[in-house]
Amino acid sequence: MFQTAGVSDEMAKKVAYIDPDQCDNSPMCPLPDVCKQGAITRRKINVFLMEKPVVDPEKCVGCGVCVEDCTGAAGMVEG
Ligand code: SF4
Question: Which domain holds residue 19?
């Protein structure tokens, strides 16, 4: 039988989060390309505009690479 309760804080998964209030929505944003898990996506609004990047916490493995390459909007949070 599996134990599902009592997971310690050290075992909690960390995932990336991109704060939409801090994101400058740069057209040169590298984050969708730097995430090798495909966890960061950015939808096209039209030929000129993109939505801000978002993280899929189910795909994120918590490596932190995107946080290093972001200008300040990305950070790690408890998943
Ligand atoms: S922490 Fe790693 S896996 Fe998660 S979104 Fe950032 S680059 Fe992708």
Answer: 13-78
